[in-house]
UniProtKB/TrEMBL annotation, chain A:
Biological classification of the source: Bacteria, Pseudomonadati, Pseudomonadota, Alphaproteobacteria, Rhodobacterales
Family of the protein in this entry: Belongs to the binding-protein-dependent transport system permease family.
Subcellular location: Cell membrane
Transmembrane helix as UniProt keyword: yes
Keywords: Membrane, Transmembrane, Transmembrane helix, Transport
Organism: Thalassococcus profundi
PROSITE patterns linked to this entry: ABC_TM1
Protein name, UniProt field: ABC transporter permease subunit
A Pfam match: BPD_transp_1
InterPro entries (UniProt xref): ABC_perm_TupB-like, MetI-like, MetI-like_sf
GO CC aspect terms: plasma membrane
Residue spans crossing the bilayer: 31-51, 58-82, 94-115, 153-178, 198-219
TrEMBL record, chain B:
Name of the protein this chain belongs to: Sulfate transporter
Family annotation (InterPro entries): ABC-Tungstate_binding (IPR052738), PBP_domain (IPR024370)
PANTHER family on file: EXTRACELLULAR TUNGSTATE BINDING PROTEIN
Signal peptide range: 1-21
Organism of this sequence: Thalassococcus profundi
Domain of life: Bacteria
Span of domain PBP: 17-247
Keywords on record: Signal
Length: 232, 272
């Protein structure tokens, strides 16, 4: 364990270009997937939160259940669609970072939708009467709630990012773990483990943890700065 | 407004990803042993230097590699299960199959050698003894080239290991490296190709117990995917790569690759 920690520090300090490439691709894929998942999931979650329609309970159950989507199943479904022999094969997207972004977006959009639904529904319960007295439309209500809940929703986004950056099952199928093209942190860790180089695998794992920590710290500091300014 | 900007930026990123160099790159659907042992890291820079063609390797088990190539998700197939490869060409998925190189399979086991097979050269006898003693044996169980070979050796030995599945016969359903890690973790015998074993870093007290039987021969073959079956393949570059591998230059490069002073693959392509 200490050896792995030492190796991790050594790898980072050496500024190994291969490692940097892998780290940057991990961030690019998972952050893009998080942004797309938020663009889909936040409005969807908010609409379900304020909406009253038949079958709403069923939608809630499905949305919550989809949070548990197994990455390998998502990877397989995306593979079957993007494969040259699949319906979207003509796009030539299999074994590209784009395919990995699509898979991770499908994986985490339900998480963002389900969690934001809960956050916004709770907030809506507080403000429902006020909104009614202002005669706001559904769309205005959703906009107001999304804006008001923005700091809580940042945490929702982080939950999605955490899931995306940590998963290996989906990206290894649709990305193929191709060196210098689709190799990310988790697939590199899986590869080193299968080579029996457990020390290097663990060192990469430590670096991945530190990156996740860094992203969370960055978001937290944005949030704290914003909150402080709000009360000045 | 803000959302629109983010949306546009995201779309741009997605499209940029789609526009990666198409022409001078090919995808090789490969068995894991050639990738995990570092052979490609040695070969591909030489090939790219000579031809300018970028080779992207997807390393999966032979069974999955063949399936992926059948789905047109690769330009070249490089695996080690001759009957399946011939069937692949027969069915029109590949243009032609050429012998490329060989090495051999070995059975590795713990120092304690619970089944007493260490030093045996008769693989069927060794397998029969392992089954007889009920000693743990970790199998790939994933329809890979190594797994297919192992299954055929059990049949030759007159043992049906499926009867001991979950008991002494442990099917991991994963790659060679993962199966070695699991097998070593539980003290089981494992059959592996020699290249993966030599370059494997987590050997602990494991050594080669059974080797040298000619039935443990491990032949690799190379097949360009047929452009008639898959119009999307980069047929020209794929053929260039396959031709180079079996050419004098390619064969020499394969022979020159060593790990710990041991040659991992022995070129045996028919003379061009």
């Amino acid at each position: 364990m200490m050896d792995a920690l030492g190796l991790a520090v050594q790898l980072v300090l050496s500024g190994d270009p291969d490692l940097l490439e892998i780290v940057l691709l991990s961030l690019r894929v998972s952050l893009t997937a998080t942004v797309v998942a938020c663009l889909i999931g936040l409005p969807l979650g908010a609409l379900v939160a304020v909406g009253r329609f038949t079958g709403r309970n069923a939608v809630l159950i499905v949305m919550n259940a989809l949070m548990g989507l197994p990455p390998v199943v998502v990877g397989l479904l995306v593979y079957l669609h993007l494969s040259r022999s699949g319906p979207l094969g003509f796009l030539g997207l299999l074994y590209t970072p784009t395919a990995m972004i699509i898979a991770q977006t499908i994986l985490i959009a339900p998480i963002v939708a389900a969690l934001s639904r809960q956050v916004i529904e709770d907030l809506h319960a507080e403000y429902a009467e006020q909104f009614r007295s202002l005669c706001l439309t559904k769309l205005q209500t959703v906009q107001a709630l999304l804006w008001d809940a923005r700091y809580s929703l940042l945490t929702v986004g982080l939950a999605g990012f955490g899931r995306a950056v940590a998963e290996v099952g989906a990206v290894i199928i649709v990305g193929g773990n191709i060196d210098h093209l689709t190799r990310v942190m988790t697939t590199a860790i899986a590869l080193e483990t299968s080579k029996g180089d457990l020390g290097l695998a663990l060192a990469l794992g430590i670096i991945l943890l530190v990156i996740a920590l860094g992203v969370n710290a960055a978001v937290q500091s944005v949030r704290m700065t914003a909150v402080r300014q709000a009360y000045v | 407004m803000q959302f629109k900007t983010i949306g546009a930026a995201t779309l741009a990123t997605l499209l940029a990803g789609a526009a990666w160099a198409q022409d001078q790159s090919i995808i090789v659907q490969s068995t894991t042993s050639t990738a995990n042992s570092g052979l490609y890291d040695h070969l591909l820079p030489i090939f790219q230097e000579e031809t300018g063609i970028q080779v992207n390797v997807v390393a999966v088990g032979t069974g999955q590699a063949i399936k992926n190539a059948e789905n047109c998700d690769g330009d070249v197939l490089l695996v080690h299960a001759k009957p399946s490869e011939e069937a692949f060409v027969e069915a029109g998925y590949g243009t032609s199959r050429t012998d490329l190189m060989y090495n051999d399979f070995v059975i590795v086991g713990p120092e304690a050698d619970p089944a007493g097979v260490s030093g045996m050269t008769d693989v069927q006898g060794a397998l029969a003894r392992i089954a007889d003693q009920g000693a743990l044996f970790a199998s790939r169980g994933d329809d890979s080239g190594t797994h297919k070979k192992e299954v055929s050796l059990w049949t030759d030995a007159g043992v049906d290991p499926a009867a001991g599945s979950g008991d002494w016969y442990r099917e991991t359903g994963s790659g060679m490296g993962a199966t070695l890690n699991a097998g070593i973790g539980m003290g089981a015998y494992v059959m592996t190709d020699r290249a993966t074993w030599i370059s494997f870093d987590n050997k602990q007290d494991y050594t080669i117990a059974v080797e040298g039987d000619e039935d443990m021969f491990n032949q690799y073959g190379v097949i360009p995917v047929s452009p008639e079956h898959c119009p999307s393949v980069n047929a020209e570059a794929a053929q260039t790569f396959a031709d180079w591998l079996v050419s004098g230059a390619g064969q020499e490069a394969i022979a020159a690759y060593t790990v710990a002073d041991q040659q991992l693959f022995f070129p045996n392509a028919p003379a061009q």
